[in-house]
Structures are given as structure tokens and as C-alpha cells.
Amino acid sequence: MNAAFAAGDRVKVRRAYPPGHVRTPYYIRGVTGIIERILDAFPNPEEKAYGRSGAPNQRLYRVRFRQVDVWPDYQGLPGDTVDIEIYQHWLEPA
Amino acid sequence: MRGYHDLGGLPAGPVDRSEHEYAPWEKRVHALLALLSAPSRNLVCTDELRRGIESLGEAEYDRLSYYERWITSITNILLQKGVFTTDELGRKLAEIEQREAKES
């Protein structure tokens, strides 16, 4: 699958709560970050979790978030960031 | 809804970073998953294992140890896929219990 986003794009993590096995951490849903890099495409683990093939492959991205955007009460340096690897279907343009 | 396993950002105690020995049965469970997920068998993949663990229910998840969660999830998946029946499993467990009772 082609990458819908490029490095540097601003993206927002979808605020969704599907059942099953989901690899997008709860705390990052609804938060906006920047594509740090494009990774490979992999079978969708949410589908594989139900014994299916996971086709078509989903593009994976490393997304960088500012800690102050993730945690309202963040006490560290304002430039601190956290990188999370997130599948394309969890991201929308921001 | 937040999954009970999805703890990022919640208050928690310090992480126990000490190394510990794994019991032989724990190593066996790990090896079992490797064999079941091998491409030649493709019976249980990591994502299925995780789904099983993440749907045990919070009380059961907290009660079980790490590899107890694994073997419970693996067992459920193999039952669902018809690799063995509940009756076969029940009889085998009873057989092992009797054998261990004799040995001890």
C-alpha cells in the first residue's frame, strides 16, 4: 500500500475505540503529531488478531508527539517528545 | 473504552527490573507458541494471542501470571479452532493430575 502521508505531515490520531487487539495506545488517541518517518507496510494486526490474513498490508509510520500535547500536566522540558509507531488507518490529516 | 491492559499514563508503582529465572513450564509455553505460529502450522499468531489475553476480563488478567495468561489464551484459541476438544483437554488434565498425585 502506498504511503498517504509524508515525513513532516501533521496528523491526528483517530479517537476510536474498537474491540479486539488494538496497537494504538489509548493515551495517544485524539492527539496531533508529525510524521517522523515512513516505515514499511505490514499485515493489519487488528485483523490478524481474529485469525484472518491482515491483507491488504497497512502502512506503518513513526509519529512524533510533543509531550506537552500528550499530557496536560507534563512537568518536563517543553521540547520533549515521544515517538509512537502507528498504522495508517489510525491517522487523519491535521 | 480503555482496555484494562492499556496502562500508559495511569498511576503505577515502580517497575520491578530484577532478573528472574523462568520455570521450565514457562519456557515450554514460550516454545509452544513458537511452534504453533511457525509458517508451516500457522495455528496461533502473536496478534491472536494478544487478543485472547486482552479479552480474559480484568479480574482474570490480574489473577494470572504472565505465562499463565499465554497458555490460557493459546488453549482458548486451539479450542476455538478445533485442534482439540474440551473433552480431550479435560481428560488429559485429569490424567496428569493423577500421575502427579502418584509421583508425590
Strand content of chain B: under 5%
**Total helical segments of chain B:** 5
Shape of chain B: globular
Number of E strands of chain B: 0
CATH class of chain B: Mainly Alpha
Shape of chain A: globular
Number of helices of chain A: 2
Taking strands numbered 1, 2, ... along the chain, how are they ordered across the largest sheet of chain A? 4-3-2-1-5
Q: Kindly give the count of domains of chain B.
A: 1
Summarize the structure.
The complex is a heterodimer of chains A (94) and B (104). By secondary structure, chain A is mainly beta.
Task: Label this structure with key terms.
heterodimer, A: 94 residues, mainly beta, SH3 type barrels, five-stranded antiparallel sheet, globular, B: 104 residues, mainly alpha, Cyclin A, domain 1, 5 helices, 59% helix
Overview of the structural elements:
The complex is a heterodimer of chains A (94) and B (104). Chain A is mainly beta. Chain A has one domain: Roll (SH3 type barrels), CATH 2.30.30.50. Chain A is 9% helix and 36% strand. Chain A is built from two helices and five strands; from the N terminus they run ββαβαββ. Chain A has helices at residues 45-48, 67-70; strands at 10-13, 32-42, 58-66, 81-87, 91-93. A five-stranded antiparallel sheet of chain A has the order 4-3-2-1-5. The longest helix of chain A is centred in the middle third of the chain and has 4 residues, at 45-48. Chain A is globular. The two termini of chain A are 21 Å apart. The mean pLDDT of chain A is 96. By secondary structure, chain B is mostly helical. Chain B has one domain: Nitrile hydratase, beta subunit (Cyclin A, domain 1), CATH 1.10.472. Chain B contains five helices and no strands. Chain B has helices at residues 24-37, 46-53, 58-63, 66-80, 86-103. In chain B, α1 packs parallel to α4 and α2 (46-53) crosses α4 (66-80). Chain B is globular, with a radius of gyration of 16 Å. The N and C termini of chain B lie far apart (47 Å). The mean pLDDT of chain B is 95. Chain A binds chain B through residues 17, 20-22, 25-28, 45-46, 48-51, 54, 70-71, and chain B through 1-3, 6, 8-9, 45, 47-48, 50-51, 54-55, 77, 81.
